[in-house]
Design a protein that fits this description.
The complex is a heterodimer of chains A (147) and B (118). Chain A is of the alpha+beta class and 147 residues long. Chain A has a single domain, classed as START domain (Alpha-D-Glucose-1,6-Bisphosphate, Chain A, domain 4), CATH 3.30.530.20. Chain A is built from four helices and eight strands, in the order βααβββββββαα. In chain A, strands 1, 2, 3, 4, 5, 6, 7 and 8 form an eight-stranded antiparallel β-sheet that branches. In chain A, helix 1 crosses helix 2. With 118 residues, chain B is mainly alpha-helical. Chain B has one domain: Arc Repressor Mutant, subunit A (Orthogonal Bundle). Helix content of chain B is 66%, strand content 5%. Chain B contains five helices and two strands; from the N terminus they run ααααββα. In chain B, helix 3 crosses helix 4. Chain B starts with a helix and ends in a 9-residue tail after the last helix. At the A-B interface, strand 1, helix 1, helix 2, strand 8 and helix 4 of A face helix 1, helix 2 and helix 5 of B.
Amino acid sequence: MSEQVLHVTRVFEAPRELVFTCMTEPEHLTHFWGPIGVTAPLDQITVDPRPGGAFRTVMVNESDGSTYPTSARYLEVSAPERLSWIEDHSGMTVTATFTDLGDDRTQVDIRQTNVPPQMLDPRAQAGFLTSLDRFAAYLARLSRAER
Amino acid sequence: MSAPVLDRLDATFAALADPTRRAIVARLAAGDATVNELAQPFDLSLPGISKHLKVLERSGLITRSRQAQFRPCHLERAALDAAVDWIEANRRTWSERFDKLDNHLRALQAPTTGDTDV
């Protein structure tokens, strides 16, 4: 059973090649890979951007020093349009799509599924509009309203 | 996150991958219901609805009373909340990452002043 679990999108004021480069070079990833309060030390990032290549990071919590290593393998590296990797521990697949909007603006769409996208039935892909993350947001609102 | 937790989330996501089962969960969020009550709005046979309920039950999203005659279905909030929390935590991670990436891209493209710290 396959389903999109999460879709996040953002538009950046930068050319597509540069945005793609930032997502695939440790020197750039170290600046943004850790969320707020978390760093991603440069010497612990491994990027081998080809199908089957390793994508490893260690995120370090700034307040207590706890570490969170992640290990993934690239499934697709198509500069500068698309990048996908599968996480070793969860089997979760992350696909990043880079769309050139013109005027040096780039849209990045992150989609997470619990199976590799190549294995998804096209009809299942068409059904993404009713995807789980929207349902989750809907239920979260429902839950909050009730509590 | 530990493997059992991820396995459980996987089962939850798989159970929620079907639109009928999502509708059942949404209905149960409003309160317990019997199989007959659940079958009505979906135009499904009782065996059809029972199949969906079994998937939901195996995933831990719903439970059914063993005692009561009509065995009403009950939504297990904790299982649903775990899935919702996981999704929201991941969304937040990407959102914060993108905030930082936005700053990084601005710094990279800023006119050189000779003392960039990029």
